[in-house]
Specification:
- The structure holds 2 protein chains of 2 kinds.
- By secondary structure, chain A is an alpha/beta fold.
- Chain A contains 15 helices and 23 strands.
- In chain A, α10 crosses α15.
- Chain A is globular and about 70 Å long.
- A two-stranded antiparallel ribbon of chain B has the order 1-2.
- The longest helix of chain B is centred in the middle third of the chain and has 27 residues.
- The chains are: A alpha/beta, B mainly alpha.
């Protein structure tokens, strides 16, 4: 067991400050697999912690325990965001579980000043952005139905104040003008900021952020980092940030401490001592590191600030399979997502072609429509006009499963696995003949119990190893993957390209 | 007709609070309706209470009972909750059927419900000495009460309480992470909805003048659910539309002068067909925005 009383080093900001959260001897076991093995840690006020570790090491488990979503098997958690200490000891005795008022729940941790954001954001989609923030405000009289019914005036007065300050919260985050937009309709970058505003509004003193940068383009990353810095400096918040390998180099400059979770223990280092891994924000760089004979072969500017850059690998043999998209227009509601409105009002479509043996990387800013484009090609969304050809054959009238049988393989960025199946069953269902190496240890577990990275690896195997594979459409294939998995994808690339072509969509890289 | 519309509207908006906003499918709603009716009938007949205190008594009785049920089903969700609500429904139905002893007068502790024979001669509403004996009078009272219920519901749903309710419906885990006590919220919703449907029950018994255990039946619960689903769950207009549509179908059948025996069968067929068509073409309900299958 390791003890963190002797935290090696902290920046001046956290030098003398008090402890807000302390855990001792946390253990958690999943089906015989020790995820946390007597983990102890200390969080100081104003600290910015980067939590990292390989896939499946238990980052999310730790986050869920510290925010009240998961009960540890044993250990203690001490919460002292205000001057009192709330000490929770596990396992909890049965009489506490029988009581109505003493539970270990997210709401209890929230009342104690713990907040969190999710990787998949989880805003309340049917409400506006400002309602999303306003709803988080604690101690609202109007939340008592008796007050709301019998003292509507008092409630209305408090509600007006609440709305006004929620809107000014949003304005501080450069979201003025978007307050009344429905949370389901605002862009990814904006909704991530709304989520942080919501969590701080609920009174969070310690904020756990699960991949706050994933899926953001360069501008969005810069905005978010700046905002997080301000939260710590002006608001005195404590942050714990879980971030993916691709984006760690953006977090390190603002981090004071780095926690590395491995084998159920935490290694605590000062952030200054941790060297940023070589900057690998660009997908191509990442691939080229593990596959040096990839050469850049072309670059096409697409409308709306997106770039389609193509890479070629010299291969002895390439199956002649290509993907051609001509004059494609896709609408969502009345809005043209793919294609643009011409001067005469008629929509002009998107045109590009991916040749056999090519790897095309689509860099597009958030909200450009990457996912929409891939879903339209895969047949999950109807297209308005234009043609999609696979190897010269028109496929735009075919059903999604017919396109898949012709060799179009789609990897979605969201986790769309079947939670009730085991990994082996999912691979079987996807017509995968050879089980790829490195995933055997969790093949027999249900998909719903896997960590984000493990699930992604299985999804990737389903998409890349299917016997139908000719042309792959991969939407952000690297999110949630660790360094090793990224390297393996790089090694497998020639095989993939040998049987056809690959279109990969990633957010535009940061502007350096 | 107007009275029935009032009753259906109150029933539908109260059930919508539970089914639409909490996402908990309950089959016990007609049980609370029956509690409202029986409570009203008993206190007016036996104790000679006026209309308003009797309605309030029914509301409180139903709301208090819902608290006990809420505590017992505290942790249940999904199918298990449906089973639990079915149990509550069966309990109320069998109480209405079996709390009965023919040797004792109706309304005493030995013969509270008069069993399958029901309670008859329930007085029409009388407020502050004014008797509302005519159909028009009862309609006025019921419309005022229904309007009040609609107003209270509207006010609640647009208040911060309603906003928390929507947040919990959209994403319960996220709402709990913000410190919102979703369980307490569900208990509150149940109490409000049960109290409200008890009002509908009281209007019903005062208008018809006779109640028997069939009002606590599962069929009636399912009819109530149909109103919400047909109209569109989890929004304000939906149940209003649903109540009107389900009331209109039997009236239309009566209008085309089909023999009664056949009309009864046709009505059931029409309900079934309507539900199937809606599920297929408009899963969010006639006036709804929120899809039940999401």
């Amino acid at each position: 067991m390791m003890c963190c009383a002797a935290v090696t080093s902290k920046s001046e900001r956290t030098g003398q400050s008090r402890v807000v959260l302390r855990t001792h001897g946390l253990r958690k076991t999943y089906g015989g697999h020790k995820v946390l093995d007597g983990l102890s840690c200390e969080l100081h006020q104003g600290e910015v912690v980067l939590l990292r570790g390989p896939n499946g090491c238990g980052k999310t488990t730790l986050l869920n325990i510290l925010t009240g979503y998961l009960e540890p098997d044993s250990g203690t958690i001490e919460l002292s965001t205000d001057n009192t200490v709330d000490r929770m000891t596990f396992p909890r005795p049965w009489w506490k579980n029988a009581s109505l008022f003493d539970h270990f729940t997210p709401e209890r941790m929230a009342w104690g000043g713990i907040g969190r954001t999710w990787q998949d954001i989880r805003l309340f989609d049917s409400q506006t952005a400002s309602d999303n923030v306003a709803v988080a405000t604690p101690h609202q009289r109007g939340e008592n139905p008796a007050w709301a019914t019998f003292r509507p005036h008092a409630v209305a007065v408090q509600e007006r104040e609440n709305m006004a300050s929620s809107r000014s919260n949003l304005a501080e985050l450069r979201l003025a003008g978007r307050e009344d937009a429905s949370a389901g309709a605002i862009s990814l970058g904006q909704s991530k900021r709304v989520a942080v505003a919501r969590a701080t509004r609920a009174g969070a003193r310690v904020l756990f952020l699960d991949e706050p940068l994933s899926g953001l383009d360069g501008a969005g990353i810069a905005d978010t980092i700046h905002f997080l810095e301000k939260l710590v400096e002006l608001g005195g918040l404590t942050l714990v940030i879980v971030e993916h390998i691709l984006n760690i180099s953006f977090i390190l400059p603002i981090a004071t401490t780095v926690w590395t979770l491995e084998d159920g223990h935490l290694k605590v280092e000062s952030a200054v001592k941790v060297l940023a891994t070589p900057s690998t924000e660009r997908f191509e760089d990442m691939i080229q590191q593990s596959q040096p004979d990839v050469v850049s072969s072309g670059r096409q500017e697409l409308p709306g600030g997106a770039v389609l850059s193509t890479l070629a690998v010299s291969l002895p043999h390439v199956d002649p399979f290509d993907l051609e998209v001509a004059d494609l227009v896709v609408r969502r509601g009345n809005r043209i997502v793919i294609g643009s409105e011409g001067l005469d009002g008629a929509p002009r479509g998107l045109t590009f072609r991916i040749r056999p043996g090519e790897l095309a990387v689509l860099h597009a800013p958030n909200g450009w429509g990457k996912t929409t484009l891939l879903e339209a090609i895969a047949g999950l969304l109807p297209i308005e006009s234009g043609e999609i050809r696979l190897n010269g054959r028109r496929i735009d009238h075919l059903r999604p499963w017919e396109r898949a049988r012709l060799g179009l393989s789609f990897l979605q960025s969201r986790n769309t696995l079947f939670g009730g199946l085991t990994g082996r069953q999912a691979l079987y269902l996807a017509h995968v003949k050879d089980i790829p190496e490195g995933i055997e240890s969790y093949l027999e577990r249900k998909m719903a119990t896997l960590s984000g990275g493990e699930a992604k690896k299985i999804a990737l195997a389903c998409a890349a190893q299917t016997t139908f594979f000719k042309v792959g459409l991969f939407d952000e294939p690297l999110t949630a993957l660790d360094q090793k998995a990224v390297e393996r994808l790089g090694r497998e690339l020639p095989d993939l390209l040998g049987s056809g072509a690959l279109l990969v969509a990633v957010p535009s890289a940061a502007l350096h | 007709m107007l009275i029935y519309l009032d009753i259906y509207v109150v029933v539908a908006i109260s059930l919508n609070l539970v089914v639409g906003y909490c996402g908990l499918l309950t089959l016990a709603h007609s049980g609370y309706f029956a509690i409202g009716s029986y409570a009203y009938a008993l206190v007016t007949l036996r104790l000679g209470w006026g209309f308003i205190p009797a309605v309030l008594f029914g509301m409180v009785a139903a709301a208090v009972l819902s608290l006990f049920v809420s505590l017992a089903t505290w942790r249940l969700k999904g199918d298990f909750f449906v089973m639990a609500s079915l149990a509550v429904q069966a309990l109320i139905l069998s109480a209405a059927n079996n709390w009965f002893d023919s040797s004792a007068p109706v309304g005493t502790w030995r013969n509270l419900t008069n069993g399958p024979f029901g309670i008859s001669a329930i007085p029409k509403p009388a407020i502050a000495g004014i008797q509302f004996d005519t159909i028009g009078g009862v309609a006025t009272v019921s419309t005022v009460l229904a309007g009040l219920c609609v107003l209270v519901t509207w006010n609640l749903l647009t208040s911060p309480w309603g906003r928390v309710l929507q947040a919990v419906r959209d994403d319960e885990l996220a709402a709990r992470g913000l410190g919102k006590n979703s369980r307490l919220l569900k208990v509150q919703v149940f109490a409000v909805a049960s109290g409200m449907v008890a009002v509908a029950g009281a209007i019903y018994s005062s208008y018809v003048g006779y109640i028997d255990p069939s009002i606590a039946s599962t069929d009636f619960s399912i009819l109530m659910l149909c109103m919400v689903v047909v109209g569109g769950a989890a929004n304000f207009r939906g149940p209003l539309v649903g109540a009107a549509v389900l009331l209109a179908i039997p009236e239309l059948l009566r209008f085309v002068k089909i023999p009664d025996a056949m009309a009864g069968q046709l009505r059931l067929m029409a309900f079934g067909l309507l539900l199937v068509l809606l599920m297929h073409f408009r899963p969010q309900g006639l006036a709804g925005r929120y899809r039940m299958d999401r």
